[in-house]
Specification:
Protein name: NAD-dependent 15-hydroxyprostaglandin dehydrogenase
Order of helices and strands: HEHEHEHEHEHHEHHHEEEE
Pfam family, one: adh_short
Distance between the termini: 54 Å
Keywords: NADP, Oxidoreductase
InterPro entries: NAD(P)-bd_dom_sf (IPR036291), Sc_DH/Rdtase_CS (IPR020904), SDR_fam (IPR002347)
Number of helices: 10
Radius of gyration: 19 Å
Low-confidence stretches: 305-309
Structural class: alpha/beta
CATH class: Alpha Beta
Number of domains: 1
Family: Belongs to the short-chain dehydrogenases/reductases (SDR) family.
Length: 309
């Protein structure tokens, strides 16, 4: 993998923590420069950026509010200035039904930052509008590059969906709507790989052991010990790396090195790979059986029904 990534450059939003941080770290370890785009960096992310602040590969942090499209555009300007261009883009920043923008806590209530007169939800801006806009910018950048994207100069856009994109829990309607939409976006852009050498694909993990879950007591209670099983951000990041540079991945990545009979899952543009604990499968657009394995469940969360007046 290092040979593939050496000298390439990636933009990763949300890289200050969680899945995006793990993906950014793997990119750096395999030789790619990475622009960390986030509102802030957790300590481990700051240490990583500091350790790659010079030399090759290199990490650069740019404070970014992904709801602001001009700030998304500036990421490409920075990449061109510092590294000559971009090869991999990951719109990884996301939130899970935060109280500041939640279906069950409507605009105008004290916890919400959504303005009843503004006509928008912050959670949709973060989870859906930002990935759509960053994907648009990435395609434009890739097509106008010198050389432009093509069969011998392949580029990648890797999005983060969720098993929530296959579910319909009452507790998380906005989050699930955005993840259903991400799956649709990725599948619509599948032909770009064959036509112009741009692979657009996504991971769809179960509940991942990140601060988004572990540092919020109510969300942590949705995880049932003995029934559910955490997905590690490191495993999700490994699958994301495969989405960039591989044509297939083992259904059980952990056992693939020792099990020569491992079932291989094909990877191409439009792939949405579900990632549960030690299990990977391709989510199909029609007649899909639904999430497999033990990976935590948004179905355990209770909606804030009291907040609807």
């Amino acid at each position: 993998m290092s040979q593939y990534f050496n000298g390439k450059t990636a933009i990763v939003t949300g890289a200050g923590s969680g899945i995006s941080f793990s993906f950014a770290r793997l990119l750096l370890e395999n030789g790619a420069n990475v622009i960390f785009a986030d509102l802030q960096l957790r300590d481990e992310a700051q240490s990583l950026v500091d350790s790659y602040s010079s030399g090759q590969p290199r990490a650069v942090y740019k404070k970014t509010d992904v709801r602001q499209w001009d700030q998304l555009s500036e990421l490409f300007d920075l990449a061109v200035h510092d590294f000559g261009g971009v090869d991999i883009v990951c719109p990884g920043a996301g939130v899970y039904e935060p109280e500041f923008s939640n279906f069950w806590i409507p605009p105008g209530q004290e916890q919400s930052i959504d303005d009843p007169k503004a006509g928008r939800y912050a959670s949709i801006d973060i989870n859906l509008s930002h990935p759509i806009r960053l994907t648009q910018l990435a395609i434009s950048h890739f097509m106008s590059g010198k050389p432009a994207a093509g069969p011998t100069n392949r580029k990648s856009i890797i999005l983060i969906s969720s098993t929530a994109g296959q579910k319909t829990p009452l507790a998380a309607p906005i989050y699930c709507a955005t993840k259903h939409a991400i799956n649709g976006l990725v599948r619509c852009l599948a032909p770009l790989q064959d036509r112009v050498g741009i692979r657009v694909a996504a991971v769809a993990p179960g509940v991942v052991k990140t601060p988004l879950w572990t540092e919020h007591a109510e969300k942590s209670r949705a995880f049932e010990e003995g029934k559910d099983e955490w997905v590690t951000p490191e495993l999700v990041a490994e699958v994301m790396i495969a989405l960039v540079c591989k044509e297939e991945i083992a259904q059980n990545p952990r056992d693939s090195a020792t099990d020569p009979s491992s079932i291989m899952v094909p990877i191409t543009g439009g792939s949405v790979l579900e990632v549960t604990a030690d299990y990977v499968r391709n989510v199909t657009a029609f007649n899909d059986p639904g999430p497999a394995g033990r990976a935590g469940s948004t179905l355990h969360l209770r909606p804030h029904l009291y907040a609807i007046g």
